[in-house]
Amino acid sequence: MSDVIRLLPDSVANQIAAGEVIQRPASVIKELVENSIDAGATSVTIILKDAGRTLIQVIDNGCGMSDTDARLAFERHATSKISRADDLFSLHTMGFRGEALASIAAIAQVDLRTMRKDATLGTRIIINGSKVESQTPEACVPGSNLMVKNLFFNVPARRKFLKKDTVEMSAIMREFERLALVNTAVDITLVSNDVTLHSLRRGPMKQRICELFGKNLDKQLIPIETDTSIVSINGFVGLPANARKRNPLQYFMVNGRNMRHPYFHKAVLQCYEHLIPADEQPNYFINLRVDPETIDVNIHPTKNEIKFENEQAIWQILTAAIRDSLGRFNAGPSIDFDVEDAPDIPVFSPDATATHDVNIDAAYNPFADTAPLPADWTGRPADHSPSRRPAFQSRPAALDDWEKLYDDFMRKRDEGLESIAGSSLNAGIPVASAMTSPDSGRLAELPVEENAGGAIQLRNTYIVTTTRDGLMVIDQHRAHLRVLYDSYLAKTGEQDFVAQSTMFPDIVELSASQNAVLSDIAPQLGELGFILTNRGDNVWSIDGIPSAVKDIPSRDLLLGMIERVTETGEELASTLRERVALSLAKGSAIGRGRPLTQNEIDRLVSDLLRLPSPGLTPEGKNVFTIIPFDQISRLLG
Questions:
Q1: pTM for the model
Q2: Which residue, 112, 111, 79, is CA-closest to 94?
């Protein structure tokens, strides 16, 4: 039998590595810009064509490369950042794996021009799918100019999975924002299809935040800063009043590197736990500085996941710093003492004597059967004769007759249960089978809301019916919402949306990524009935909305559609129809607390269970739950 194990060619190995490192055009931009930063660049320009499908060009003024370095840089595991394994724990650069350029060259056509600052002539190298086609001397400016053309040209399956240009461009904008936030000392420019989307000059972090996400953030952020032997923290957190329900701006950075860290994210949310609603989240831009030896960035090829040696200690320091800033800037809840009409409370003095007269009757005994009453509020002795004593002041002759007291209590309890059962029967509500009271040994008939059709309504909120597996408990409001949504969605499938002008325009300020998406889809929105005016500086005016839209704020409708298109790339017409159907369903669905007839209950259950997806509302909330019979048996012992 012949040998079956063999080494893969370098080109194939690089394409496999590219599957981890290069997922979309935004990944290419991240790797190239980080290389420019590692090369000491103070100015980086990114030029795109067709959201990076056709061209991604990164120009920097870094140190440049020699002829040999330029050729070697595209070999796998070739890097200038580390030379031994121990260097992984003293990293001060973004890259170190030596996989990015090799992976990019394996799935694209690469054209690199580069020259060192102390050289008089640079070099140009052209690579096509990991194959070096040429390397020639070239007159160029110091630094590097790298062009990546026709991404995934030789991997059709990967290119097919790229989403629409609007979605890919939005991903690029988000990656650009992360790169710009962490490199505030670098001039960085983004140009897409000959249009300059960003031209950011170096400056403080808050200036960079406002340039990226809007000037209105200037008054919405408060600084945090602390310095300990474990970690140094600086950055900004948002005021509780400016928390967002959608698209919160949340960024963590460590040692100049972006990261995702759910553990620290929970620490931030804990600081806002009683300050914002549960469905909102705060904005934050937090930069951590730690000893490189206490973190491990070599977890994933994208280097976005980082392990910390002192996670718990950093959690405590982070929460303390945020709470301190919220308190110092009066962002937390405060108690407002109104002292205008408050009584004057004297300051306690241990040497002072009491000045108020207190009349104490030494003969008063509260435990005596015929105890004299204390002096009244006027200070005059009261009449202690039994005939003048009020009825409520009379004491029973024998409080130790506990059996008689207990019998009287049980008699009143049974009378109350009988009256409840009688009123239920008179109201036409059937009574359940008798339940045995273990305490008294008597039978008490308790009413329940029951219907002969099999399904019953509980508390005018839930519907309970049996299934093959157990008891199904249905939220009647969510069930009706799901039924109406599917019905309205089918009816609006072919509906034309007519524009309806608003009395007062709604002004919306967008982030740069949202603005790029809206600029691209604005013509399609116009066909669907939106009247939009671009006022410049990422500000839009909503002058009209589709006439079919009801009860949805125009701002929320527009932002929701931008978010949906950004995340999924769905057609706008279908997204708008879903929003309209949801709006109509919310306005017509029965509410909680409304009693239903037996026919209404049966009809609702039947309509719900006929739907293809009855388990969730359009917003992803549970419509019903099933309690298995075996769980009921366990609960009953």
A1: 0.61
A2: 79
Query: What is the distance between the alpha carbons of residues 399 and 403, in angstroms, rounded to a whole number?
Result: 10
Listed residue (584, 529, 574) closest to 554, CA to CA: 529
Please enumerate in sequence order all residues whose Cβ is within 8 A of that of 346, keeping only pairs 6 or more positions apart, or say none: none
Report CA 562 to chain centroid distance, whole Å.
17
Task: Answer yes or no: are the C-beta atoms of 212 and 180 closer than 8 Å.
Answer: yes
Q: Is 516 helix (H, G, I), strand (E, B) or coil?
A: helix
CA angle 37, 41, 42 (to 5 degrees): 110
447 DSSP 8-state letter: B
Task: Give the strand pairing for 195-200 and 187-192.
Answer: antiparallel
Residue among 170, 149, 116, 144 at smallest CA distance from 28:
149
| HSE-CB for 121 with a 13 A CA cutoff | 4
SS3 state at 236: strand
Which among 277, 218, 291, 216 has a CA at the least distance from the CA of 245?
A: 277
Give the mean pLDDT of 269-274. 89
Q: What is the 3-state secondary structure (H, E, C) of 385-444?
A: CHHHCCHHHCCCCCCCCHHHHHHHHHHHHHHHHHHHHHHHHHCCCCECCCEECCCCCCEE
3-state SS of 110-156 is EEEEEECCCCCCEEEEEEECCEEEEEEEECCCCEEEEEEECCCCCCH
Burial 140-178 (b: 16+ CB within 10 A, else e): bebbbbbbbbebbebbeebeeebbbbbbbbbbbbebbbb
Bridge partners, residue 288, by sequence: 233, 254
- Most distant CA atoms of the chain, gap in Å: 123
Judge whether 560 and 579 are in contact, CB under 8 Å: yes
Q: ∠ CA(269), CA(285), CA(223), 5° rounding? A: 90
CB 544 within 8 A of CB 529: yes
Q: Which residue has the tokens 């950004």?
A: 566
pLDDT of residue 417: 44
What is the distance between the alpha carbons of residues 36 and 40, in angstroms, rounded to a whole number?
A: 7
Q: Tokens at residue 70, please?
A: 């330029």
How distant is the alpha carbon of residue 586 from its chain centre? 23
CA distance readout (Å), 243 to 105, 224, 269, 552, 580? 43, 17, 11, 20, 26
Tell me the average pLDDT across 221-225.
Answer: 93
- Cβ contact 604:483 at 8 Å: yes
pLDDT at 421 over 60: no
| Residue from 169, 160, 163 nearest 570 by CA | 163
Higher pLDDT, 353 or 204: 204
- Where helices occur in 248-354 by DSSP H, the ranges are 262-271, 311-328
